Amino acid sequence: MKYTILPLIGFFYLLMVGDGTAQESVSLPSLPAVLRNISAMNFCGEQIPIETQAVRERIEKELMISLWDRPQAVLWLKRSTRYLPIIEKILQKYKLPDDLKYVAIAESALRPHVGSPKGAIGFWQFMADTGRKYGLTINQFNDDRRNVFLATHAAAKYFKDLKDKLKTWSLAAAAFNMGEQGLLAEIMEQDVQDYWRLYLPLETQRYLPRILSVKMIMTTPAKFGFVLTATDYYPPLRFKQVTIDNFQETPLRLIAKAANTDFKTIKDLNPQIRGHYLSAGRYALLIPPQAPYDFEARLKKRVKRYQTLRQERVYIVKKGDNLSNIADRFNVPLAALLIWNRLDIKQPIHPGKKLIIYAPQPQDSIRPVGIEKPNKEGQKRSPSKKEGISP
Questions:
Q1: Which residues are paired to 142 by β-bridges?
Q2: What is the rounded distance in angstroms from the CA atom of residue 223 to the CA atom of residue 342?
Q3: Sequence-distant contacts of 174-177: CB under 8 A, at least 24 apart
Q4: How far does CA 385 lie from the centroid of its chain?
Q5: What is the CA radius of gyration of the chain?
Q6: pLDDT tens track for 171-225
Q7: Distance, CA of 177 to chain centre
Q8: Cβ-count burial of 155 within 10 angstroms (0-12 exposed, 13-18 middle, 19+ buried)?
Q9: Domains and CATH numbers, the chain
Q10: Which pTM was predicted?
């Protein structure tokens, strides 16, 4: 995990919280006083050797970095009421220590879409291979690492395996950060099985102190100058879950309309869905709790209407066409053309390809599937009643 420090001028400005004045900064405890008050602590019930000077220095450093970025710490606190109840309940189900919830904060600050340069994604910062190993779907359509429920179940299983292999929660946390094979190699080479006495990659040496700094701030925020009222915290997630048997790609806007909400709400409740479509398959989706009782029936009706409309809005690519001039001709954004047809702007299109264009004009260029092109004499065959032409 990469850590950043705000510029000094930004730090003093961001001390002005609450009513917008600098009054609160006066009551902030001094850093030396805060550090002097660090006393006995534990992680998942394991005592931390805080009396060892090298250990204390590592913890003090991470605590000061966390306190330096006060806005980030405030966001940890505010988001905690939205996500931690979910994480705590899942950890309890697997009979895991409650302290593991602080790993998610240290990893992602409880943000579903955050990613690392190495490719780790989501609440628990799973790499793709590890996520798939623990049951997460990760492909071009869905990334379950962004789903707090699915990702936490996977993290719980992974932590159970790590604890079984490494025997202590401190080493399990280290392995969660750097991978169990690399950690096991260092344990064998150094002949040491104590996280605090192992020489590990610097990021991993900082990892558990970082988690402990999060725990200290989250459990006693007022001690560090964070005084929030009940209304300051973000509300918990509210939703109802529905099961959808999706037999073909379906635009998320149809799901949103059927739930009497908007596209953004569906995406926010289901951050694992990538792009504008729900791919074929069976899904447990979250929708707003106030969604209509007949959501499923409403969705089926909209999907049927959408399928009909697609048949009526087909454009056949001609020689000399490209995506830009087709978009200009129908007065639609090029980006919309790409979304409707799941196209990549870098890939060429060829004559004869069928494109879906949701534009009312020019009508003479869009025709229902199955209607023949004009014959050599320029006369069009009259469509049958069965084929029909869209108005």
A1: 273
A2: 52
A3: 174/198, 174/200, 174/204, 174/207, 174/208, 176/103, 177/1, 177/203, 177/204, 177/207
A4: 49
A5: 28
A6: 999 999 999 999 999 999 999 999 999 999 999 999 999 999 999 999 999 999 9
A7: 19
A8: buried
A9: 8-232 (1.10.530.10), 240-310 (no CATH), 313-391 (3.10.350.10)
A10: 0.79
